[in-house]
Each structure stands twice: as structure tokens, then as C-alpha cells.
Amino acid sequence: MRAIWAQRAVLQQLVLRDFRSRYLSTWTGRLWILLHPLLLLALYHFIFTTIFRTRLPNIDDSALLPYVAIGLWPWLAFSEALQRAVGAVEQNAGMLAKVAVRPELFVLAPVISTFGLHLIGVTAVLGVLALVSPALSLSGLPVLWLAMLLCFAFTLGLSLLLGALNVFIRDIAQILGQALGFLFFLTPVIYAPEALGPHIVEALAWNPLATAIQAARHALLDFGPWPDAGALGYALGCLVAALVLGQLCFARLRQRFEDFL
Amino acid sequence: MKPLLKAEALGKAYPKTTAAGDRARAMWHLLVRGRLPADLQRPVLSDVNFELYPGQRLGVIGRNGAGKSTLLKLLTGVLTPSSGRIERRCRIGALLELGAGFHMEYTGRQNIDLSAALLGLSPREIKQQRDAIIDFAELGEFIDEPVKHYSTGMVVRLGFAILAVTEPELLITDEVLAVGDESFQKKCIRWIEQYLERGGTLVLVSHSMYHIQKLCTSALWINAGRVERQGDVFDVTQAYLAWHERIEAEEASGIDPTHLPYHIAGWTVDGDAADTPITRELGCTLSIEVQLKAPDGEAPALLVGLTRADGSPVYGLGSEIDGIRGTPLDATTLGFRLQLGPLPLLPGHYQLRVHAMDPSGVRLFDTQHRELIIRGQSREFGFIRLPYRWD
């Protein structure tokens, strides 16, 4: 940890550069920061309301768009960050072979920049949606931010774990793509578990992302139950386990990264 | 005073991953035991010990594949040692042929920021020094192009500019400076000379003994992953050159000496008949006595020669040409006495050879040789001292 702190200036460079190279290098890039999630939001909203014909009980239909948005951004941040971070050590093999830089930084940088970006994105989008959707109460935003922070820590732990393993077993990045495809449907983004019944909400509690999203929806839309103590404790446990395990595996495997890249 | 760099029993083994599943096995062992099993490792460097104090200049020499690059990577911290340890107490600037560690997608300017941060500079220091680095690198508009568009020489220029301006406490470099164009090379060499004059500490890896002797005070010779010799730069480089020349000569030929009618019965140098190397100071004179056997009673010819350690001739003389017939010692033995010198040979390793030839001096029958080591310090080049005078 101290070694990473000593190289924080490097981390700052990597995050800033990641930020800029992905989104700010071209004028279309600037648009894409918001355009990509907005298009997804429009698409999922269409699926949600028109194809699935979902109706949320006890709440007016103007809440549907913010409902999808609150689920979509944490999911996007999680899946994008994880996918980019897992291949990060491998992609920076050239630098790792030549300069003494902590490989953790290459994992940290995309997680930080992706979450930073989507945190701004979701705040801006909800700010706009609050004008048209009376059900949305922005006083719940801190809960969403906190939920995003928890997702961030969970993602970071998973990224360290899978990123380290991926140096030795390259298939992990491939498998991850498939696994995320499944996980998307096990996370309540384009459907409402509350509308499907309490047993579905309970079943989804094994997924800490679902718990975080549920908490944010409760706080911002006053919709659905606040996650019970068991689910919250479990989600926190997942987060701590991911961080500890990720950090432990990374520290053990790091000494040999150079030899296996 | 504490050393800037200290290596203790330093070693590195690379993993062997030939069979399918070796990577997964290696990972499992690392996760569970924290180290690799012996059958998955191939040692490439072992038991390196040295200390480097401020102002010292260490040359690292050895053949290709001896482990020099691995040692450098261990010193800079790119590689983690698999045995022993290394202590670093300074900001190390490395400029290696392997590349400067740039991010290929970043522009030159962005790489300056990143490299400076990697060297441990604070954002404020980076801001202060950025313009000086850009000036030094002389890259013009390319400074805002991604580094992947640079030529090899331009990458080196940028790397060197960062080093020169940030001034490391320890400079680690190899023959990388041969890459840039001539005017930039001169600029670099001038900077390195000034850096050394200011008392800078250096680790230099080179195949050029000229550069090693010129720039370094001590040397470390690595052979097949082990330290063959370390210490004073002249001792180590001379021993290395002699070894290297001998290896090359051995690889070139492998002829067995055969005993034929005319052969050498015995010979001494300054009264010493042993087979051990002769060690003398620069400018010495050798007193050589040789006994030749001639079964048919005819006087054989004696040839005495000096070669370099690789066998290339330096000087040769023949008794037959000079009309010397030797002194009969008994019915079939002839004795020869020769004073050779003072020898103008520069310090290094040579061979003294004596040959028995047929009486007409045409066919070579027997050859014996001894190693001759000339000691001393000299910054002249080549192997022979010629008289000269500056006017």
C-alpha cells in the first residue's frame, strides 16, 4: 500500500490519460461520454416498457426512465471497469518490462477512471430526469453515490484477483466476457424484481450489485423495500472478501508477472 | 557512508513453461506456497554480491547471454530477485537499449510527465522541468505526436533528455547511445562526462572494453550467470579479453600436438620450466632457453613467436634465418639461448610459443606454448607500444 502511495503521481497520470484518451481526444469522444449510456438507456427503456410491458406498482409511469437509469449506470461502470482492468497488466507488459512501476497501478487506473466517469454521467442524467419525473427525489443522490462507491470497491477487488490470474491463464479475460453476459441478466437493470415478487428480490440478494441498485432505487424513487440487514451484510462481506482476496493474490503473483508476460 | 546499491547473494531464475499446464501449475504454487518449485525454474543468474558507493563507476561485462541484462533489470527493480536481495537507496535513472519504458500511445509530452512521475518527481517539479526536457530532446513538433510514430533515435533522445534534466543519483546505461545521430551523441557524451565530473555514480554495461576502461573504476565480469571476476577495472577487463580471445581461438581450431622426429625436449623462461603463466611488468625482457631433439644428428631450426591470446601473431623469429645452429648438449640434443626484449607489449594476455622445425626451416614439427601476462596500467589502445612524440 505504501509503495502504491509513493507512486500516486504515476497513478494520477495514468487515470488522467485514460480519461482523456478515451473520451476527450476527439470532439465525437466528448459526445460519447453521455451519448453511449443515453442510447443504451433509450434502448433498455424501450425493452422495459414496450417489450416486457413492465408496470411498476404504486408509482406513475414517469418513474420508469429513472428506474432503468439507476440500474444501468452502476452496471455499466462495473462491467466496463472489470473488463478493462482484467487485461490491463497484460496490455502494459511493454512498460512493466522496462520500468519499475507497480503493476497495481495499471489495474487501479481504468477502475478509477471508469467509475469516475459514470458517477458524473449518472448524476447529470438524473439531474435532467428530475425535471420531467416528479417521482424522482434528488435528495437520495448520496445513497446512489455510496452504492457506486461500494460497487467500486467490489470491482477493484475482483479486478485485482482476475487481473493477476489472467497473467498466468489468458483465457480469463475471454471467459469474463461471457460471464458478464450472464450476470447482466442476473442484475436487475432491464427488469423490475419488485414487480415479479418478493421471492425474486430475495433470490437476487446473492448479487451484491443487485443490493446496491435496490438501495439506490429505494432512496431516489422511494420504490421497493430497503435491502434487509442480511442482504446488506452479505454485500459488504462480498466487498471485503473481494478486496482481501484480490489484494492477497495480486501480491503473491506480482513478483513473477514479468516472467510470465 | 552507506552504499547506494547493495546486492547480496542476488539471483534470478526464470520459469520454464514448456508443457501445457505449466503456467497454471506455476500460478498454483505461487498462490499456495509463494514460490515456484525447482523443476519449473531455470537459474540465469546466481550469487552476485557487490556494493556501489556514491561516485563509484561499475562496468558490467560478459558475453551475450551471460546474464548482464537480467542483472540490470534486477538493479532497476523491473525484475524481482528469486534469491538474495537488493537494497536501493537512491533515485535510479536507467537508459537501456531495451527501450525507455514509454507508453507507445502517449505523446512525447505525456511520456515526459509519466516518466518524471515514475522517477519520483512531484507534479510541481515535473511542471518546472518539462520545458527543459523538451529543449534538450530537440524533437520539434514530434513532441506532441504519439511515441509509436518515433524513430529509434528519437525515442533515445527523449529518454536521454528526461535523464539529463532530472539528474539521477545513479545512472544505469548500456550501448544505447550508439543509436542517436552524431551531434546528439556528442551532446550525450558531453553530458555523461560532466555528470561523472560532478561525482555521479554509474553502472555501465558494454562490450567495448575501451568505454569500460575509460569510464569505469571497477568492473564485474559475468559468465554463464555467475560472477567470474570483480574488482579493479584493468584487472577484470584484461582477464576477460584474454579469456574471450582464448575461447575464440579454441572454437576456431582444435589440433593435437604430435611428437615427430624433431621435437622440443624442454624449455625454460627465466630459468622456470613450469607450465604456469608467466607474469611480467610492461617493458620486461625474457631470457629463453630451449633444448631441441634431433635424432638424425641434423640441426633442427627453432622458431620463437609471440601471439595474442587468440593466436593472432605479434612477432616471430627463426634460428635458421639468423644462421644460429645451437650448442650440442649431447649426441641428439641442441641447446638455444635467446634474450627477448625489452618487450613493447601493452598490458594483456599473450602466448609465448616455441616451435621445432626441420633443418631447412620449412616444416613445423612440434609446438609448445606458455601464457604470458603483461601487467600494468595503460590507456593506450592496441597491443603494442610504438614510440611517438607530440610536437
Describe what you observe in this structure.
The complex is a heterodimer of chains A (261) and B (391). By secondary structure, chain A is mainly alpha-helical. Chain A has one domain (30-260). Chain A has 14 helices and no strands. The longest helix of chain A has 29 residues, at 104-132. Chain B has a six-stranded mixed β-sheet with strand order 5-6-7-3-8-9, with helices on both faces. In chain B, strands 11-18-17-13-14 form a five-stranded mixed β-sheet. In chain B, strands 10-12-16-15 form a four-stranded antiparallel β-sheet, with no helix packed on it. Mean pLDDT of chain B is 84; it is low at 254-259. At the A-B interface, helix 2, helix 6, helix 13 and helix 14 of A face helix 1 and helix 3 of B.
Task: Based on the model shown, name its key terms.
heterodimer; A: 261 residues; mainly alpha; globular; B: 391 residues; alpha/beta; Immunoglobulin-like; six-stranded mixed beta sheet; five-stranded mixed beta sheet; 9 helices; 28% helix; elongated
Topology at a glance:
The complex is a heterodimer of chains A (about 260) and B (about 400).
Chain A: H1 2-6, H2 8-24, H3 27-51, H4 64-86, H5 88-91, H6 93-96, H7 104-132, H8 141-168, H9 171-185, H10 193-196, H11 198-203, H12 208-221, H13 229-254, H14 257-260
Helix pairs in contact in A: 2-7, 3-4, 4-7, 4-8, 4-9, 4-12, 7-8, 8-12, 8-13, 12-13
Chain B: E1 5-15, H1 22-33, E2 41-52, E3 57-61, H2 68-76, E4 83-88, E5 92-95, H3 108-118, H4 123-137, H5 152-166, E6 170-173, H6 182-197, E7 201-205, H7 209-215, E8 218-223, E9 226-232, H8 233-252, E10 263-269, E11 278-281, E12 286-293, E13 301-308, E14 313-318, H9 319-322, E15 327-330, E16 333-340, E17 348-357, E18 364-375
Parallel strand pairs in B: 3-7, 3-8, 5-6, 6-7, 11-18
Antiparallel strand pairs in B: 1-2, 1-4, 8-9, 10-12, 12-16, 13-14, 13-17, 15-16, 17-18
